[in-house]
């Protein structure tokens, strides 16, 4: 009986795709009660004015059938709301949210369309906001790097030259002290240059991503004591500047996190192009624990969104962390 009711309701719902949710519930209940009344009227069963004990099971069975049919039809009609709630819980503009399938009619179809449009607006606004913020950040990095190089770097260079001339004219007993001061100033100058280079890597603009990543690996190997194995496709052509910058910043953030938190001894960095997709992978043999995603990881996800990339981070406790960045691209080959 419930199967016949369900089939009848499906035919009715297909003919009335614009029925409102309230009207749909009313129609379901009305259809169930109408069919129950017809069954009661046409069946040989009867109920006395004073219900007899032998008639109670018939009433209970009839009521149970009506309630079960009503519940099944309502469950079928309201099923899309469960998928909508689950999708709402999964929405994350930083990771890219899945869209709901348009498998319903009437108001549910409009609700699903509206929800999908809302998610698209959220992701578009997040990308726009992230793009503006990261562009402003890169401009500020460039300005600070230029001031460090042109102002503080030049001042330290002048101070170092004057110390050298002073040491040449100073008494012999002051030579050691002046030499120590010279080494301190020279170390400060090297540190300022290193900070400026990390803020705005000139090698990325001048020589491209493979050379910039090689220089980055050499720097972290020297300063953090990491053993870094590089597998970088040297034949990789120049790609879009935004893609190169995103790839470089993600690799830089990975190496920074490894040096600070992973307690790793070795790192493997690979970069190659496969079927029009630029693949960057950074693996370490550290602790492999990520208690929460901090500003660094969120920054990597925001940068990945800017170039429509897929960023996956897999932490294996005791066996290290594996970060993968897949960027769809079209290589720009240099002119012959």
From TrEMBL:
It comes from the Bacteria. GO terms for molecular function: kinase activity. PROSITE patterns: HAMP. Residues 75-127 form the HAMP domain. It catalyses: ATP + protein L-histidine = ADP + protein N-phospho-L-histidine. The chain crosses the membrane at residues 21-44, 56-74. It is an enzyme of class 2 (transferase). Keywords: ATP-binding, Kinase, Membrane, Nucleotide-binding, Phosphoprotein, Transferase, Transmembrane, Transmembrane helix, Two-component regulatory system. Gene3D superfamilies: 1.20.5.1930, Histidine kinase-like ATPase, C-terminal domain. Its main location: membrane. CDD domains: HATPase_UhpB-NarQ-NarX-like. Its EC number is 2.7.13.3. It is found in: Membrane. This is histidine kinase.
